[in-house]
Amino acid sequence: MKKVRVLVAREVAIWLQERRRNVRMSLSEASEHSQIPEQFIVQWEDGMPIPVPDFIVLMKVYQVPGVVVSAYLQRLQQKFLGDDFG
Fold first, then answer.
1. Residue 2 in 3-state DSSP?
2. % of the chain surpassing 70 pLDDT
3. Cα(73)–Cα(77) distance, rounded to whole angstroms?
4. Is the pLDDT of residue 16 over 80?
5. CA angle 63, 44, 33 (to 5 degrees)
6. Cβ proximity of 44 and 16 under 8 Å
7. How many CB atoms lie within 10 A of CB 10?
8. Which of 4, 19, 36, 68 would give a disulfide with 62, using CB separation of 3.0 to 4.6 Å?
9. Which residues, at least 6 apart from 58, have a Cβ–Cβ distance to it below 8 Å?
10. Tell me, what's the pLDDT at 85?
11. Do the Cβ atoms of 30 and 59 come closer than 8 Å?
12. What Cα–Cα distance (Å) separates residue 7 from each residue in 15, 23, 24, 82?
């Protein structure tokens, strides 16, 4: 299960980077708008697991619609856990 957590964290890290780049926001801007320390955002984009409340805050800051976030999370669930947890 630990391996799955690492794989999910890596995939989320890549997705976070892409979302931030889509809105053309620097790390310092993301930190300022979200009120999350920049070093945390850097760690999460490097693959450290992100707490759900902070993930939600960043999705709002990066202007990602809730439907897109929901679809992404469902895709992660299906990829790593299968349909057994749906």
1. helix
2. 94
3. 6
4. yes
5. 40
6. yes
7. 14
8. 19
9. 16, 19, 20, 30, 34, 36, 41, 50
10. 58
11. no
12. 12, 25, 26, 15
